[in-house]
Amino acid sequence: MKTAFLGLGNMGSGMASRMLSAGHPLTVWNRTPEKAAPLVAQGAILAHTPEEAAAGADVVISCLMDDTAVRTMFDPAGRVVTALNQGAVHLCVSTISPSCADWLAAAHAAHGTLYVSGPVVGRPDAVRAGTLMQFLAGDAAAIERVEPLCSAFVARSVRIPGPASHANKQKLCINFFIVSLIEAMAENYTFADRVGASREIMAGFFDATFAAPGLKGYAERLFERDAGGEGGFSMRGGLKDIGLILEEARRAGCPIELADVIEGKMREAIEQGMASMDWSAIQEISRRRAGLD
Q1: Which end of the chain is less packed: N or C, by CB atoms within 10 Å?
Q2: Where in the sequence numbering do the catalytic residues fall?
């Protein structure tokens, strides 16, 4: 089965690497070709354009930044879609809006190709460890075809009935939960520092409370004030995701005030030069507002 992978950022490159290690032949493309060098060393074929990668592929996996990048890449009249064989499957593993997923499904249906939404839950270190969680929704036969590929980089796949966009809605709910806990922990650490309580005791409490390794990791990051961007999820990406969450909540007529608070802190963080830092750097905004260093 010929498989193409489009988009080799922190998440995409890790997924592609694990697929190659699992023995899946792969053609890869990235806007910055230099990022593909480690994958080529693993045996990947480097395509010079996305349509070159997609031509003749049975499955195309995309890991692009946002709705705009996805819509541009998969324009129904564009070169990538027209390069796809009839019956080929497009699997999108990015966090995109449900409306974008619906648009993709319609575009592929009109072309005679199939679409699956497969957003993943986890950070780049989880990609490298193969411990991601994934939601899959869309054409059932297409899901059957992509699951063996996904098993190279996810530990657990959850099929969600209904249209492909249902997987994206589920991912937004998960991301809202995660960033809400980050905000709650950040405010707790800030409160402890401001009133003279113990950050260490709070850290121990969080460690004992959270079973999920990812949440423990964020509790430790916040305690250490380690918001470096390496291996993390950027503030810029976090702002994109919280924007999608708020957009979907407004569409559903569901006020979620905490998301508004988080969005405001993320915008402030980016204005203060933290765009490439981990999204847990919203703690630094809480500290500055509290008069702490």
Answers
A1: C
A2: 171
